[in-house]
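Journal club prep — side note

Before the paper discussion, L.F. wants everyone to see what a predicted structure for a comparable chain looks like in token form. Sequence:
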Amino acid sequence: MKKKIIVISSVLLLFVLVGFVLSENKKAIDAKNVAIDRSAIQVAVTVAEVSKQKVSANLELPATLEPSKEADIAAVTSGKITSLRIALGSVLSTGQVIGTVDTRQQQINLKDAKEVLAKAQKDYQLNKDLFEGNAGTAQSVKDAERILESARIKLSQVNQQLGDAAIKAPINGVVTAKSAEVGEYINIGAPIAKVVDIYNLKAVVFVSEKDVYRLKLSQNAEITADVLQGKSFGGKISYISPVGDENHNYRVELTVSNKSAILKAGTYIKVNFNLGVQSDVLQIPKIALVEGTKNPYVYVVSANKAVQRVITVGREFGEQIEVLGGLDEGDEVIVTGQINLTSGSKIKKIADN
């Protein structure tokens, strides 16, 4: 009986000890979970003053290089190609003869036309002499003259056909495609090769409605390409479309001299238009924007608190962005520490290292 009492007492004591330990642990956990009054916490931030600055107004847009001219070398007469002195990459000049079409039939036609002309000249002279000697009629002279003129026209046509047998380059440039070979029969108008002027290119850029009115014909621009780091090229506006597309963008073309042939048609480039120096442009650092430029807002310092303010932004100038509305010159915007802020948070300004 005494042993049983001791065992029961031990068990009860164990329960008391366990309960005490659990109670102490709960107090410790509850102490950790006590709500912190964040309204009293000062968030460390850095700020920048909203200011007006002079800026060089540049408009940089992506563009593509295209040939200023490209043309098909086409057959002017039909026949079998007897010679073709070009290959891919051949450099051609306007009017250069690069091949010929079989002229054997034209040579036969030329011989016949010359014989017909000689006979017509002889007949005309004979009829003229007879008329002047009162042995012929005026009508005979007119008929002979008509035949003579017809023979001359025929000879001119045959000579033209012989000239057309020479295949010529229509423009200065480089052969970029070849679609016929010696021995093939071609019809009039059939393409033989393509030649592209690579020494004079054009940059094609699409400009928004709000920017196109700031451009003008003959305006200069700087052209750069990511694949040609450190190099820049000059361009001049040669065309501004009077009609925008469905997105209110306007096609603008610039002439680009490429005498060294370093640039290639099809290259992606950037066109930088200098629109002149403007003053009094209100700006802030872009890092002050909490959600970028789509839904722009910033935190403004007011009585040592952060106050959320929606703003309107405009052009970007490197790390700065234009402010069109919502801020005044002299306002202070928070540029670091925004992630810890809500509107009304207390702040502590620190130096920007």
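L.F.'s comment for the group: The mean pLDDT is 87. Keep this in mind when we get to the figures.
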